[in-house]
Specification:
alpha+beta, four-stranded mixed β-sheet, 22 helices, 11 strands, 3 domains
Length: about 525
């Protein structure tokens, strides 16, 4: 009888021992399977969420960094606060960059222009309005953001965040000469009775800066007016309008769908982002800069005391354009490499901030769950090797006489090791296949219980503190919170999970058996039979 038939008959004959070994492998297999599927599920949700966040980076000073805040309490004269255009372009020449642009941003409170409020215009404003201590001033409904553009293609159009529906984008001449042209949303245009080719007045309210003034009372305030031509109307794309938690699973975004001004402080996150999308003015960088300088000059004339504390150097610095670059990378996997290559090029205090930097903040429980799963996998593998090793070793000691007979009849020790291996693997394969299914449900139950007990409050990325950071200036078009990330999380069968678990499980069993079969090399047939 060959060793293969002996192995099968041995498993069937020694039912109690086979059942004990099966039970041990099945229990340990469930723990291992549950941990493996949790580990792979957390890695999957991280990958999916980061893809939705987009492969976007910007360069700037992280004003939320405590050390940087401390340094700027008493700044040295040589501190750089404005990025040089040459450096922006040098970084943009990186092989990881697919597309980039840089922008001088601004914004203003208008006296006459009506803003489109995507939430307030759809329901009773009294139910939607947020009041502050100043007496009813809602910044979200008063402040119009202006986005400077250097590339006439307009980055948000290239990223499929907005779509040109009427008119045209800017020409190279518009960009270089700083022509007074503007691109506005179709909804904003309709609200103000504007069409392509119309002249529009950007009327920037002059605020005196007095603490007791009512910002809602604009009747007697002066304005700094700039006449611009509406050259195009854009539409906010539906994929950007979707809100997490309201439309089921979050739709997978383009790798670059993240460039948009952050929501205004004083509004909730989703309403603020919607407001920004519908009310942003796109204008050439040079035009924005000239408007900013004209406004500052007008403000200096009307309220000279506002800048009395500023030195000539500070005034000169404020006259320089302040650009924020935005880089779209070719792949989400290139972010880390891009960070490493770009960091040495940057001035002191500057760093690369990416669209995925907030993942750990909004999905900390998933990172924690992933770490726990790793520890459990290592512990389960180690425990499995030890327990299976001891059980197989004990069974072989009970079968010492049987093994001695095989050796005395001329069987090689390698043949007996193969027989033991086949016996254990036959039982192990059945146990592992069953635990493959039950372990999935165990992993699902364990992860659900953990996430519920470690649930975090919805992350608010629109606080005043975040408004000071460069990253907040270009937040994601998709809305991300702990709840929205949870929607992407699922524990399910995948080919990768099945193959990974079976390979780890079988490798663990084989290592245990090989270690235990060292006992066979100590067997002396003559001594066993005579004993």
């Amino acid at each position: 009888m060959n060793f293969l038939k002996r192995a099968i008959r041995s498993v069937a004959r020694q039912k109690s021992k086979s059942l004990i070994l099966f039970t041990v492998i099945f229990v340990l297999g469930n723990i291992l399977a549950g941990s493996v599927i949790i580990q792979q599920s957390t890695q999957h949700v991280e990958k999916i969420t980061k893809e939705q966040m987009g492969a976007i980076a910007t360069v700037g000073i992280d004003w939320n960094d405590k050390e940087i805040q401390k340094e700027f309490e008493d700044p040295s004269p040589d501190m750089e606060t404005n990025l040089d255009v040459k450096l922006i372009k040098k970084v943009g020449a990186s092989p990881y960059i697919k597309y980039y642009d840089y922008s001088e941003s601004s914004g203003f409170q208008s006296k006459n222009l009506k803003l489109f409020n995507p939430s307030g215009d759809k329901k009773d404003k009294a139910d939607d309005k947020t009041e502050d201590k100043a007496g009813g001033f809602t910044l979200m409904e008063q402040f119009i953001p202006i986005r400077g553009v250097q590339n006439p293609k307009i980055m948000d159009i290239s990223l499929n965040k907005i779509k040109l529906v009427e008119g045209s984008v800017f020409t190279e001449e518009d960009i270089q000469k700083g022509n007074k042209v503007v691109l506005i949303s179709k909804e904003f245009a309709s609200k103000n009775g504007l069409h392509v080719g119309d002249e529009m007045t950007i009327d920037q309210l002059i605020m005196s800066g007095e603490m007791n003034e009512n910002p809602n009372d604009t009747s007697d305030k002066e304005t700094y007016d700039t006449q611009v031509e509406v050259v195009g109307l854009y539409q906010v794309l539906e994929t950007v309008q979707k809100k997490s938690g309201k439309s089921g699973k979050s739709s997978k975004a383009d790798s670059g769908s993240v460039v948009h001004a952050a929501s205004i402080s004083g509004s909730n996150g989703e309403d603020g982002l919607d407001f920004q999308m519908y009310n942003t003015f796109y204008m050439p960088n040079k035009t924005v800069h000239e408007m900013n300088q004209g406004y500052m000059g007008f403000l200096t004339t009307k309220s000279p005391g506002l800048f009395s504390d500023m030195s000539e150097k500070e005034l000169a610095e404020s006259a320089k354009p302040f650009y924020v670059p935005v880089y779209q990378l070719k792949s989400i996997d290139d972010l880390a490499k891009f960070k490493a290559d770009t960091k040495p090029l940057l001035p002191k205090f500057y760093s690369v901030m990416t669209s995925t930097d907030n993942f750990d903040t909004i999905a900390g429980q998933f990172s924690k769950l992933s770490k726990i799963a790793k520890v459990v996998i290592i512990a389960a593998v180690s425990l499995s090797i030890i327990l299976i090793l001891l059980i197989v070793l004990l069974f072989m000691r009970d079968r010492k006489r049987e093994l001695g007979i095989y050796l005395s009849l001329g069987d090689k020790k390698s043949t007996i090791i193969l027989q033991i291996m086949i016996e254990v693997l036959t039982i192990a394969i059945i146990a592992l296949m069953l635990s493959l299914v039950t372990g999935k449900f165990l992993g699902s139950f364990a992860s659900d219980a953990f996430l519920q007990s470690n649930s975090v409050a919805k992350t608010n990325t629109d606080t005043i503190g975040d408004m000071m950071s460069q990253q907040a200036l270009f937040s994601t078009g998709n809305r991300f919170s702990a709840e929205s990330v949870l929607e992407n999380y699922s524990v399910s069968f995948t080919p990768f999970y099945i193959v990974t678990y079976l390979l780890v499980g079988l490798a663990t069993v084989m290592i245990s058996v090989l270690l235990s079969t060292l006992y066979i090399f100590k067997l002396k047939p003559k001594k066993i039979l005579l004993g």
